[in-house]
Amino acid sequence: MNDASTTLSLVTQVSGALAIVVLLIISCAWLARRCGLAGHARAHGSSIAVKSSYSLGQRERLVVVEVDGQRLLLGVTPGAITRLGRLSQSAEAQTVATPDFQLTLKRLLKRGKAEPEQ
């Protein structure tokens, strides 16, 4: 009787420790996904970005992908990926300039002084 209870106790301890380790791994993976760490790591190491996608059917789609500054139109099916053409940079991407913070702040401060106090 003593050997059976010792064996049962050992199996219970090992399975309990294994369950704790598995739950810890699952919770760390969930937390990384929730915080965006999993997708963030992939995005920084890649020079490929999917800009847009359009579904043509159940399994067929058109995808615009940017690779090293070039935009490609791809046809994607379950059996193949085909380059359909190269696209020029969109006009809005070329003309959009980052606003100068200092200039914007000066404009807002001038606007605030010009308005009469109430």
UniProtKB/TrEMBL annotation:
<dbReference type="InterPro" id="IPR052205">
    <property type="entry name" value="FliO/MopB"/>
</dbReference>
<dbReference type="GO" id="GO:0009425">
    <property type="term" value="C:bacterial-type flagellum basal body"/>
</dbReference>
<keyword id="KW-1003">Cell membrane</keyword>
<keyword id="KW-1133">Transmembrane helix</keyword>
<keyword id="KW-0975">Bacterial flagellum</keyword>
<keyword id="KW-0282">Flagellum</keyword>
<protein>
    <recommendedName>
        <fullName>Flagellar protein</fullName>
    </recommendedName>
</protein>
<comment type="similarity">
    <text>Belongs to the FliO/MopB family.</text>
</comment>
<dbReference type="GO" id="GO:0005886">
    <property type="term" value="C:plasma membrane"/>
</dbReference>
<keyword id="KW-0812">Transmembrane</keyword>
<dbReference type="GO" id="GO:0044781">
    <property type="term" value="P:bacterial-type flagellum organization"/>
</dbReference>
<dbReference type="InterPro" id="IPR022781">
    <property type="entry name" value="Flagellar_biosynth_FliO"/>
</dbReference>
<keyword id="KW-0966">Cell projection</keyword>
<feature type="transmembrane region" description="Helical">
    <location>
        <begin position="12"/>
        <end position="32"/>
    </location>
</feature>
<keyword id="KW-0472">Membrane</keyword>
<dbReference type="Pfam" id="PF04347">
    <property type="entry name" value="FliO"/>
</dbReference>
<keyword id="KW-0969">Cilium</keyword>
